[in-house]
Automatic annotation (TrEMBL):
The record marks 18 as: Transition state stabilizer. This is 3-dehydroquinate dehydratase. Pathway: Metabolic intermediate biosynthesis; chorismate biosynthesis; chorismate from D-erythrose 4-phosphate and phosphoenolpyruvate: step 3/7. It comes from the Bacteria. It is an enzyme of class 4 (lyase). Catalyzes a trans-dehydration via an enolate intermediate. The keyword Metal-binding does not apply. Substrate binds at residues 72, 78, 85, 99-100, 109. Its EC number is 4.2.1.10. The active site is at residues 23, 98. Homododecamer. It catalyses: 3-dehydroquinate = 3-dehydroshikimate + H2O. One of its GO terms (molecular function) is 3-dehydroquinate dehydratase activity.
């Protein structure tokens, strides 16, 4: 059974509450339950952290033994060389995901420090971006 971590960064604990026109009105915990039901043959784990160091610690924790990480690093995508370095340091493939199409948003959101170290990037499909991230790790 594949082990995949879904790792969410800052402010994503507020999904379903914050900026619904961008992020939708479903909270992530209920969406995660849907994902577990949809992928019964995958050992899915969910972790959310608002702090950069905690995200890095979680990447280090699973990054040498698990089958994949689906990462939405939130705003750290556009600022964190440290998270990019953590992704580069581990063997586990990481798929970068975003709920919104960041290329349709502010210019500062259009650059990712993480993308060069990730297996791929999925964005703009709402919460389905996570579903597609899981599927890409199953290939």
């Amino acid at each position: 059974m594949k082990k995949i971590l879904i790792l969410n960064g800052p402010n994503l604990n507020l999904l379903g509450v914050r900026e619904k026109s961008i992020y939708g009105d479903q909270d992530f915990v209920s969406f995660f339950e849907e994902l577990k039901a949809e992928f019964p043959d995958v050992d899915l784990t969910y972790f959310q952290a608002n702090g950069e160091g905690t995200i890095i610690d979680e990447i280090h924790k699973v990054g040498f033994e698990w089958d994949g990480i689906v990462l939405n690093a939130g705003a750290y995508t556009h600022t964190s060389i440290a998270i990019a370095d953590a992704i580069a340091a581990v063997n586990t493939p990481v798929v970068e995901v975003h709920i919104s199409n960041v290329h349709q948003r502010e210019s500062f959101r259009q650059h990712s420090y993480l993308s060069p170290n990730c297996k791929g990037v999925i964005l703009g499909f709402g919460l389905n971006s996570y579903r597609l991230g899981i599927l890409s790790l199953m290939l």
